[in-house]
Amino acid sequence: MYYRITTFSYVKNQEKEILEWLNSAREEMKSLPGVQFGHVVRLENGKAMMVGAYDSEESAIIAQTKVQDLREKMMEVLVSSPKVAEGPVIWEI
């Protein structure tokens, strides 16, 4: 498994708009090569983290162009550029 974690900020009290945008992009996200799941976690009002899991690093690399396109589209509801970290799973329960 390989995870891509994206932290992003949006206008406080506009979480509904974020969720609407995410729902509108759901099918495109589900079609990413090797994607296993995606979850968004509210860290605080106006800040969230998306965790996307892929079956392999290779799949995440192949999906990168589509992911970048999605990030660019998502900028319409964000207040700053998202921060991305990624890597292989090294431990699990």
Could you explain the architecture of this structure?
With 93 residues, the chain is an alpha+beta fold. 35% of the residues lie in helices and 34% in strands. It has 3 helices and 4 strands; from the N terminus they run E-H-H-E-E-H-E. The chain has a 4-stranded antiparallel sheet. Strand 2 (35-44) and strand 3 (47-54) form a beta hairpin.
What are the key terms here?
single chain; 93 residues; alpha+beta; Alpha-Beta Plaits; 3 helices; 35% helix
Blueprint of the fold:
Blueprint: E1 2-9, H1 15-24, H2 26-30, E2 35-44, E3 47-54, H3 57-74, E4 83-88
Q: How would you sum up the major sheet?
A: 4 strands, antiparallel
Percent of residues in helices comes to: 25-40%
Output the structural class: alpha+beta
**Approximate strand percentage:** 25-35%
Q: What integer value in Å does the Rg equal?
A: 13 Å
CATH T-level fold name: Alpha-Beta Plaits
Helical region count?
A: 3
Report the order of strands and helices.
EHHEEHE
Which residues form runs of ≥5 with pLDDT under 50? none
Brief summary of the model shown:
The protein is an alpha+beta fold and about 90 residues long.
